[in-house]
Structures are given as C-alpha cells and as structure tokens.
Design goal:
single chain; about 280 residues; alpha+beta
Amino acid sequence: MISIRRLTVKDFSLYQHMQTGMDNDYMLTVFDRLVTPPANYLYGLFHDDVLLSVAGYTYFPGGNVMLGRLRSDTRFRQLGYPTQLLHYLVDTVKQDPNVKFIGGYTHIDNTPAKKILTKLGMTHIDTYHSFPAVNLKPLITDQMLWDEITDNQKKRQALQTLIKQGVASFPYEAYYPFPLTASLIPAEKLRVMRLFQSPLTGYFLFLDNDYKGEALLNIRYVHDDIFTTPGLFYTIDQLLKHESDRLPWFNFSKTQYHKLTHKDCFRLEPGWELHGTFIE
C-alpha cells in the first residue's frame, strides 16, 4: 500500500538504506536539519514500510517556498512515485495562506525534472549560471573602488529600483533564487547585506556572506556590462583580500554568461533554471 508522511530524525536509518545511486549525498550529513520545522520539511513516499522516494521544501521570507531534495530508490524508478510525492507536497504547501510562490530549481539539462515541474503547473521564470571564481586577478582592469551604501533605507530603495527595472528574480542565497519582491529581503537580511554603487553608472552591487559546503561571498549584479564596467571586480577583490578561504560566488544571467571570458578563472558548473507558480 502506498502512503506519504512527513519524515523525522527517527527515519534517518530508512533514508540511509535507500539506494539512490548517489556517491556523495549531502543530505546524509544534514538530515536532522532538513526534517526540522518550521523552515524545513521532508516527506517520504512508502510502499508498506519501504521508503521509495523522498522530497521536501523550505520556507523563505516573503511567502516563498522552494521544493527540492528529490531522491528516489533506483529499484523503483519509472513508476511515477516522485511526481506523486511532489504533487502531494504542492497541495500541502498551498494550504498555507501565507505562501505566495512555490518554486523548483533544477539544472538546465535535467529534462526529466523539468517535465515534473511542468506537471506541477510551474513555468520557467529565470536562468542562472552560478559558480565561484577561483582567480579574480585577470578580470581586474583598474583600481576604481565603488561607493558603499550603509543606510538601510537607501539599500531598500536600491532593491526597489531593481523591481521597477523588471528584474525577474534575485538569489536570496546561493542556489535559492526567487521572484524579486520587497518582502523577499527582510530587515535583518538587508542589514547584513553589503551594497556598493558604481560612481560612473549608478548601478548596484549586492553582496553577503553565504555557506554551501564552503564559505562564499554571494554576488548579485544584474546588468549586462558586468565584464566591462570599471571597478566591479576590483571592489569584490578588495572585500575578499583578508578572507582567503571565502570564494566569490557569481550568479550570471544567460546574457552575462555568454559574454564570459577567462573561463579558467572560474570553477564552472552546469546552469540552472528557476521554475515556479504564484499562489493567488
């Protein structure tokens, strides 16, 4: 008999025994966090007492929820269990009146996952090529330092400028972009986020520290002149000169990525797509 229920820390051994085919599954090291509300929820689809598929979701500010952590036992694939489980999760999340957006983030070339997201009623919203730089020096062509803005009201105004410009999404964290709204960035997040402005163009550069298995500086710059605008890479380099263990993490748009030079300066990774559905 097929059943679905929320997983707890007591289900860790069941997850350990799933044959996912993954050599290095990060979920094994953070399972307790992934099953701990109110931010994270993990569900399992069972046949009797056998765990066949796992998926979950995480709450973010502004009524945003991201689906993810989809795992299936290789012995029971091609039977529609992941889609069935994700449909259950979407229906569950939609019952929360505070939710405004449900998203899924997957690799550009992951056709099966994108088909599932389509079945869930999600549409493509944005494309990212996100990865760290390992050597900024060849990208630095000048020593123009951008102006830092520390006033929180002015930071909020800068975000509002991006919204008015029609920016489709904004990486709240590495691997977690959402549609850009004023409520996506709460006051505390805005306080610790650093903002710089080009003295030439007036364009904004948003940065904050992140950690995804390694220390990152999460960088958001939405304009197409990223590789030609003076001072941008110099400013980033200056911020990191006393943090040799922190990597600059770039979130390139499709257009920015196509202009990418010095590819040897980056640890290239496959591109990602954000799909989602807005809840009325």
